[in-house]
Amino acid sequence: PMRIGVLTGGGDCPGLNAVIRAVVRTADARYGSSVVGFLDGWRGLLEDRRIQLRNDDRNDRLLTKGGTILGTARVNPEKLRAGLDQIKQTMDDNGIDVLIPIGGEGTLTAGHWLSQEGVPVIGVPKTIDNDIDCTDVTFGFDTALTIATDAIDRLHSTAESHQRVMLVEVMGRHAGWIALHSGLASGAHMTLIPEQPFDVQEVCDLVKKRFQRGDSHFICVVAEGATPKEGSMEIRDGGIDEFGHVRFTGVAQQLGVEIERRINKEVRTTVLGHVQRGGKPTPYDRVLATRFGVNAVDAVHAGEKGKMVSLQGAEIGLVDLEEAVRQLKRVPESRYLDAAAFFG
Ligand code: F6P
User: Fold this and answer.
1) For residues 335 and 175, is the Cβ–Cβ distance under 8 A?
2) DSSP for residue 141
3) Which residues line ligand 1 (CB under 6 A)?
4) Which residues contact 13 (CB under 8 A, 6 or more apart)?
5) Fewer Cβ close by (within 10 Å): the C or N end of the chain?
6) What angle do CA 30, 31, 36 make, to 5 degrees?
7) Residue 111 and residue 101: Cα distance in Å, rounded?
8) For ligand 1, atom 12, which residue shows the shortest CA distance?
């Protein structure tokens, strides 16, 4: 039997609790191992704040619960580096053999760095953005996509009634997976993603063209990280936060104002925001999260370290953390051109 430490880092994501549940059940039932949950991401390890997780009825009920019972936080990488000795101390004090951090780019990068420093780590990828490399999908994406698609479906009917242009901003800082897929799934007329800078005049021209041919409305999905082409339009952002991320202040809002100014058409903008991260995971995400949790614990007991569980086709496999965090998985050109073929 082993003693496993688990934590959730970065933004929360539907399915985190389902992973925790699977880790605790598998560790106990399959290996007689115990699991300690560190609270509020890496902070729990830096400050030795934790709870003992048990394979009981309460744990069972975590499958459908949104958020994370462990709490989560973003931690500045420098603070983490400065706390390496403390982290090792906390692990020693609690007899932790292996750590399972469940997180996105920031958390997995930290996990990779810790594993280079000799801490045994098996990472579990999570993000609604679906932008972690070396895994086909991350849990949370399907839930966010479902929420976004439902919202856009609803906007169609109100947009149609008023013959309006509707802009819908969805999450996706660096990658347009949610935007592209929710745009496709809901039959949006245009989708703007970070991977492909947009030209404001082209957006306006397409809106005009569609209304001229008698269309009732125009729906454009805008990823929060979508940016205009050089010289096309100035977008004001909120600067850079302490983690090096751009603070978004609403690209869709600003684009909406610009469209109204250029073509005198009534525009309404909806920013979906954190509603995309809330609530219970879809069945797909519950299953993927559970499979990740089970496989992470199997990997721990097989003596693996410095790895991340990943979905590869129909199977769950392991990849080197180093490879997984090398770059983000952005939408490839072929995919967005494919999708664009449905619009225009
Ligand atoms: O990475 C997940 C994500 O939801 C992004 O889509 C979004 O840009 C960001 O987190 C928002 O972060 P916060 O919860 O800190 O506002």
Assistant:
1) no
2) H
3) 11, 104, 127-129, 171-173, 224, 277
4) 104, 126, 127, 128, 138, 139, 140, 277
5) C
6) 110
7) 7
8) 11
Which residue in 12, 40, 129, 131 is the catalytic one?
A: 129
In angstroms, the Cα distances linking 209 to 30, 185, 327, 336 are 61, 23, 38, 21
Residues 97-123 have pLDDT tens digits of: 999 999 999 999 999 999 999 999 999
Query: Please, which pLDDT band fits residue 342 given cuts at 50, 70 and 90?
Result: low
Report residue 330 as tokens. 């952005």
Q: Which residues are annotated as part of the binding site for Mg(2+)?
A: 105
Crossing angle for the helix pair 16-31 and 283-301, to the nearest 10 degrees: 40
Q: Which residue has the least CA distance to atom 8 on ligand 1? A: 173
* 3 state SS of 98: strand
Residue found under tokens 């600067």:
239
Whole-structure pTM value: 0.96
Joined tokens for residue 8:
């959730």
28 is catalytic: no
Q: Which among 89, 10, 81, 8 has a CA at the least distance from the CA of 48? A: 89
Strand partners, 219: 166
Q: What is the 3-state secondary structure (H, E, C) of 118-152?
A: CCCEEEEEECCCCCECCCCCCECHHHHHHHHHHHH
Q: In a 3-state reduction of DSSP, which class is residue 219?
A: strand
